[in-house]
Structures are given as structure tokens and as C-alpha cells.
# Entry
Amino acid sequence: MNDEHSDNQHSGGLWGRLRQGLSKTRAQLAEGVGNLLLGEREIDDRVLDDLETALLITDVGVDTTTDIMNDLAQRVRRKELNNTRALHQALASLLTKRLAPLEKPLRIGDKTPHIIFFVGVNGVGKTTTIGKLAKQLQNEGRQVILAAGDTFRAAAVEQLQAWGERNGVPVIAQAQGSDSASVVYDAVQSAQAKGADVVLVDTAGRLQAKTHLMDELTKVHRVVKRLDENAPHDVILVLDGGIGQNALSQVSLFNQAVPLTGLVITKLDGSAKAGVLFAIAALNNIDVPVHFIGVGEGIDDMRPFVARSFVDALLAQDITEQVEG
# Structure
């Protein structure tokens, strides 16, 4: 995917939609962060306590919040931060630094077809994410094929076919209950025959049957390698931004079955828990970037994750002087 420089996200509607999409989390932060901008006030224990509480309730995570607050408190003691506006600027810098390692655009390789698995539990927006990405890739001039590998749920196949019809993208599917590995195998063969650039693979997401689900993923992974030993080239986990800290266990669980290469965080517009990205960034044993975040229903509301723009939108004041989307 093309890089989207953070400065561009501050222009016009893009910045406005990102700011609006994070409004619920920003509202949750407002009591602790908003008061930092109400004049240049002295930093006291009350200010720091309110800020700490605001970070915790938006699911930034205990460890990350503790580290950030310790850093800020030390700067206050050293007189490096003299007022609440300076504290706000320091907070924005620390938060951006925390998220920067997650920032990595999705790259489509030169060797085709580039095969991408999408994994995740039911209801996270996996199929919708695939449809939106297919459209974005089309807009870049790439030929895309969709594989309806979630054969356990009839609605998943129908939804993917609807996206295919809407965008004019071929969808390889079989009857409900078919072997998902067979569907994906057919899709990759078709892509190879047609010279398609990208294959986007939907997979089953029944977390309540963990062992069976993970065995199925491993099987699909193994079968695709028969056609291309380097496939899948990406395995992207789609997470619902509203589940907060539960996202961490999903990252670990799916990474055990098929090593993840990236994440998409959806439904951030409907959640006050966008701080979970900081907890993901703090995972010590898993280095998986966030390729996209979803902040609305439109195609353009699934956007490349840019740390600085995300933090700026999260900490923005809801006042009329801000740029409107």
C-alpha cells in the first residue's frame, strides 16, 4: 500500500474523520487530558491523578500508564515541565513514541500473487475489512481475487460475494461446510492462472472452538504452501477495538497457530477503548505492526495507521477552532 504521510492526514476531511472516529475515546480522556489545555495552570497532584485515571479507563494498560506517569512525574520534579500545557505536549510526545513501532504500511510484494490471510473471531469486521482493502487495492490498479475460506458460516460467504459484486472482484467460493483449504487452494490456482496480483483470504473465526479453529488455520496454511512455498505472504489479525485488553489474548492465540505479520483494529469509532493500541505496543514477545485502523463505515474510514496522527486526534480539543471534517 502507498504511504500516507501524517501531514496529509491533518488536511481537510481526512483529519476530521479521524478525529470524529476517535471521539468516544477522546471524550473518555477529556476529564484528565482536556483540563491540561484550559490555560497554563500549575501541575499538582490532582492534575497528575486525573491524567492517570483517564489513561487507565481508555485501556492504555496499567504498565504503560505507570511508565508514562513516572516519566512525566520525574520531569515535573526536575522543573522541565512548568505548566499543564507543557505537560500536554510531553504526553503527546510520549504516546506517539510508544505507538511508533506499530506504524508499518502493508506492502504488496513484486512476486504475484501476493497471498494475504485474514484471521480473527466472528463479528470483528473481518469480511468488511477484506472488501474495503480489495477496493483500495483496485484503486491502485491491482487485480484482486477473494477467497471465501470461512465455509462454516453461510453469511460470511454471502457477505464476501456481495463485496465482490459491488467492486467487480472475482470471489472463489464453495458450498457451506466445504473444506476451507480446498477453497483457498482453488483461489490461489485461479490467481496464478489469471496473473492476479493479490489474493485476499477470509478464514473461519470460531474462537469458542479454539483447537478446531487453530487446526483448520494450520491446515490451510500448509495446503497453500504447496502452490507457493513463501505463502501466505501476510497473515493479518482483525481485532474489534471495543474489546479492550481482551485483544491481547487474541493476538497471542492466533499468533501461535499461524505467525501474524500485521493487525487491523476495527470499530474504533464505536468504542472508548482506543487506548488498547498502547497495550498492544507494549507486548514484549510479539512484534506485530498495525497496518490499518477502522474509524467508520466508509471505504476511506479504513486508513493506514500513523502514530502521530492517531495521538493528535486522540488528544484534540472538541472546539470550533479545530479543523472540521
